[in-house]
Amino acid sequence: MNDELICAFATAPGTAALAVLRISGQGAAQLADKIFRFGPIGSSNSTRKVVSLNGYQAAYGHVIDPLTQETVDEVVLLRYKEPHSYTGEEMVEISCHGNSISRTRLLEACQHAGCRLATKGEFSKRAFLNGKFTLTEAEGLADLLQAEEKQAQKLALQQLSGALGRQYSKINSDLLDFEAKCQMAIEFPEYPEYDISSAEYTQRMKELHRQLKALLAGYNQGKIIKEGLKIAILGAPNAGKSSLLNAILDEDKAIVTDIAGTTRDVLEAETSYKGILYQFKDTAGIRNSSDKVEKEGIKRSFKSAFEADVVLWLVGEPAATALPADSSSASAPEWETYVQGNLPAPKLLQELQAKGIKLFFVVTKQDLSACKSLFREIKQQYAVNYPVLPCSVYNRTEITQILTSLYDYYLSLGDQSLQQNVKVSSLRQYQGLCEIEAILQKLDETAAASLPPLDILDQMLQACLEKLALITGQKPDEAVIETIFSRFCVGK
Ligand SMILES: Nc1nc2c(ncn2[C@@H]2O[C@H](COP(=O)(O)OP(=O)(O)O)[C@@H](O)[C@H]2O)c(=O)[nH]1
Ligand SMILES: [Mg+2]
């Protein structure tokens, strides 16, 4: 156990009825005895000691600063004995009044008694090192502390409850079992019963691939749950991009005028739908412009598109907004090949698809009759490959339909057949899983429909086990642990 005593408030700053201070480390109760007196303020003749309290036993009393002998606050103290505490160490929690003066003075009293302030996530890191939870659970906890959306919270809770950990241990035990079998076959070649048949090999590999694929597929959704769905709104000037954003937000966020080229900077805004965070980027309308500022804006429109999960391509009036030929310069901007009139050019469609970015057509101003026929045209041309949605900012149902279609897209990312509830949301874990998948892939290539040489199989399985141990933290990587726990707040 760590004999370096640390303390911090576990509760958020700001005024509240109570604030809870945590002290952790060997000798926490002894330290508490230096500042805590049993009974109401003024009664100093109690001989009771914190060290003689049982675990989970509370005591009412007050705190005195050992340096100044001044009374700090009236408090309730709770004792935890090792290993039955959050960190797994001896701990004391002191509930004081939730104002900044009480909090500051209580922290000072602890420091005067010989305790240092905890760093970010230090309590949780100690808990992890004492085996209170696994690394994946710690990541879940870090996410939970930051999760604002309902789905994100649910995901973090699943991870915290160990659902993901159980998936990992299933893969781990399958790998271990396979590897043990393989070693037996290597050790005792004379015993045919230890042989691995190529049927068994295929079966085991199939099962490993299946489990990995399930986790990898869940990442597409997990990432969105955690980080939000990134949506870029693109289209020609006056297509109604800013109006759509405002309608979605139900707020006058972006400037809307009938002057083409109003939006020049990328405007970001968030909203949530069914517990998923939608992050919109309203961009500058795409057209040939000699205006330096507008040109830069248009460049950024495409940058936003390539960074998004989804591009909403807005089409407003028919030919009115078509891209005029740029007669002025031989050096046409690089993005010119991305548009044809007010529609995305095949090149853009291909590049977006290659990057896994989904494009939706949204035909705007459906309250105007001229635009109604445009919707039919676009639908005819693109509906085979792309969702085509009608929209008028005056029609709430159509606005909601856009949000619903985006949500359906999010749902479609998961592997429906797997009914995958547990989702990997951390890039670190995802990359680790990809590496394992790559090793198995290579093994399959070596095997070429039969059994690979046993020593190679053994090596590869060991490599998989090592990668998995890095993911789950069974073989802790100090740098990874640092990164994960640095996402916690002080006191957690
Ligand atoms: N009738 C109608 N006009 C719209 C609609 N959406 C946008 N507009 C108008 O189209 C013009 C350009 O809109 P704006 O949102 O600034 O387009 P942006 O350049 O693509 O951002 C403005 O005059 C808007 O009032 C719509 O759904 N119906
Ligand atoms: Mg605009």
From TrEMBL:
Co-factor remark: Binds 1 potassium ion per subunit.
Cofactor(s) essential for the protein: K(+)
Binding locations of (6S)-5-formyl-5,6,7,8-tetrahydrofolate: R22, E93, K132, K492
Domain G: 230-316
Cleavable signal peptide: none
Primary residence: cytoplasm
EC assignment: 3.6.-.-
Enzyme class, UniProt record, top EC level: hydrolase
Matches recorded under InterPro entries: G_TrmE (IPR031168), GTP-bd (IPR006073), GTP-bd_TrmE_N (IPR018948), GTPase_MnmE (IPR004520), MnmE_dom2 (IPR027368), MnmE_helical (IPR025867), P-loop_NTPase (IPR027417), Small_GTP-bd (IPR005225)
The UniProt record lists the keyword Metal-binding: yes
The GTP-binding protein TrmE N-terminal domain, residue ranges: 6-132
Subcellular location: Cytoplasm
Assembly mode: Homodimer. Heterotetramer of two MnmE and two MnmG subunits.
Protein's name according to its UniProt entry: tRNA modification GTPase MnmE
Gene: mnmE
